[in-house]
Design goal:
Elements lengths: L30 H6 L8 E4 L6 H6 L3 E4 L1 H6 L8 H19 L1 H8 L5
Antiparallel strand pairs: 1-2
Helix pairs in contact: 4-5
Length: 115
């Protein structure tokens, strides 16, 4: 006996279903390296194009890309260090979203035009 008056019944946690990226297949290459033509399979991080309070929406709608460490965190052009790189990916994300859902839905969900 557990000592509790009303013991909890075990429940299974519901796992969130994450959408696949609508921009890039997960193939072990960096999205930005591939655009520059200088790519090869490497360890990549999943990057949510719209972060902060919009991170969950990025995940739900597949607005993610895979980036190498230099393009994600460490390099001079890293998305977390370089505003131009971040804005470039946000424009790509908005264009991909709008192809599927339209501009009005994007503005409703994300509240800002990045184009």
């Amino acid at each position: 006996m557990s000592g509790l008056l009303y013991p909890k019944t075990p429940t299974k946690k519901k796992r969130k279903k994450h959408a696949r990226s609508i921009i890039q297949e997960k193939d072990g290459t960096c999205y930005l390296c591939r655009l520059s033509g200088n790519w090869y399979p490497q360890y990549v991080h999943k990057h949510h194009i719209f972060g902060g309070p919009l991170r969950d929406k990025s995940e739900a709608y597949g607005l993610t890309v895979y980036l190498c460490v230099n393009h994600h965190e460490l390099g001079a052009e890293a998305v977390h260090r370089n505003k131009e790189t971040m804005r470039f990916l946000q424009r790509i994300g908005q264009q991909a979203f709008e192809k599927i859902h339209g501009h009005e839905k994007f503005m409703e969900m994300f509240g800002r035009n990045y184009l």
